[in-house]
Amino acid sequence: MDQLTLNFDSSFLKYHEENPHIYKEFKKRAFQAIQKGFKHYTANGIFEIIRWHTGIIGNDQYKVNHKYRAFYARLFAKEYPEHKEFFRTRKSKYDDVVNANK
After folding, report:
1. If residue 69 lies in a helix (H) or strand (E), which one and from where to where?
2. Residue 2, pLDDT score
3. pTM of the model
């Protein structure tokens, strides 16, 4: 892994560990969309719902940090393989971050 990957990896893991309420809400909103019949959705859409329709905030300078959206989508797919196609993701050099650390 290059230094950028290592920094981003540790940055996400730290954020995720310090803000478990964000992933909890992310999962809640994803399952609501699934229950409404959506076959696919975007992590960005989930983050915008959290940002604009809840009082949830992260521990950094942003209400919810959008730079981690793709990580949460991949984490959801790993945790719920029956919904692995719900969030469509592009191939990324960060794919292994979630796989190696969950």
Report:
1. helix 69-79
2. 41
3. 0.82
